Amino acid sequence: MSGYYSWRRRPICNRKQEDALQGKRIQEVHQQSNRCYGAPRIHAELRAGGLRVSCKRVARLMRVRGLRAKGKRRWVRTTDSRHTMAVCPDLLCRKFAVQQPNLVWASDLTYLPTKEGWLYLAVTLDLHSRAVVGYAMDTQMAATLPLAALQMAAQRRGPPSGLMHYSDRGSQYASGIFQAELARMRARGSMSRKGDCWDNAVVESFFSSLKRELLDDSVFETRDVARHAVFEFIEVFYNRQRRHSTLGYLTPLEFERQATAA
C-alpha cells in the first residue's frame, strides 16, 4: 500500500511521462512479437529487461494504445488413420510435464496455404522445454516428411536409447520407414487415441501459435516465402525469444539451460 500512495503523490505530469515511456516500450515488445503477445508475456519480457512494472499496468497501457494479442485460429485435422498398419500403444497418456530433455519427443503434421498450393510442415518437439528440435517442409504429405523432421532432431540432439516418440496414429507415423527409423534409434513409439486431438495438445498449441503469427488471415505468395517464414519463426523467434507460459515465461532454450545447470 505504501508504494501505491507514493505513486499517487507523484505529480500527474510524472505519471503521464512514465505511462508514455512504458507504453512506448510495451508497443515495441508487442510489435517484436508480431502482435502475438498479450499482457502476461509482455510483462515477463519487460521484467527480464529490468523494467519494474506490474502486469495490471501493462494491461491498462495496452488497452489505452489499442494493443491486443492475435486470436486463436480454427484447428484443422490432417491425420489419416484409415489404414491397416500396426499402431503403437499410448504410453504418454497426456503426461506432458517431462523432467529432462530428450526423454519424450512429440511430432505432428500441418499445412500452410500459399498461392502456389499447400506447403506441408512436420515438426518434432521436446516435451521438456517445448523446443522445436526438428522440422521439415514439402509439397507432399508422405511418410518421408515427418521422417526428415525426426532425422534432423536425432542429428541435432543425439538422444539416448529409450527415448519416447509420441505422435498421432496417422499413416505417415505408422509407416514401415518411420517405424524402422525409431527402431534404429532404439526409441519407443507411442501414439494417441483415435480422433482425439487433445492427446497431442502440445504440438497442436505450437501449430496454433505458428499460424496465428505467420498467416494473419492471409496466404503466402509462394512456397519459398512460406519456407523462409517458418524457418525464421522456429529458429529465431520461437525457440530463442518466445516466452512460454507453461515454462514460467522463459523461452524454450532458456528453460533447457536452467534445467541443465540445476
Automatic annotation (TrEMBL):
<dbReference type="InterPro" id="IPR025948">
    <property type="entry name" value="HTH-like_dom"/>
</dbReference>
<dbReference type="InterPro" id="IPR048020">
    <property type="entry name" value="Transpos_IS3"/>
</dbReference>
<protein>
    <submittedName>
        <fullName>Transposase</fullName>
    </submittedName>
</protein>
<dbReference type="InterPro" id="IPR036397">
    <property type="entry name" value="RNaseH_sf"/>
</dbReference>
<dbReference type="InterPro" id="IPR050900">
    <property type="entry name" value="Transposase_IS3/IS150/IS904"/>
</dbReference>
<dbReference type="InterPro" id="IPR001584">
    <property type="entry name" value="Integrase_cat-core"/>
</dbReference>
<dbReference type="InterPro" id="IPR012337">
    <property type="entry name" value="RNaseH-like_sf"/>
</dbReference>
<feature type="domain" description="Integrase catalytic">
    <location>
        <begin position="97"/>
        <end position="260"/>
    </location>
</feature>
<dbReference type="Pfam" id="PF13276">
    <property type="entry name" value="HTH_21"/>
</dbReference>
<dbReference type="Pfam" id="PF00665">
    <property type="entry name" value="rve"/>
</dbReference>
<dbReference type="Pfam" id="PF13333">
    <property type="entry name" value="rve_2"/>
</dbReference>
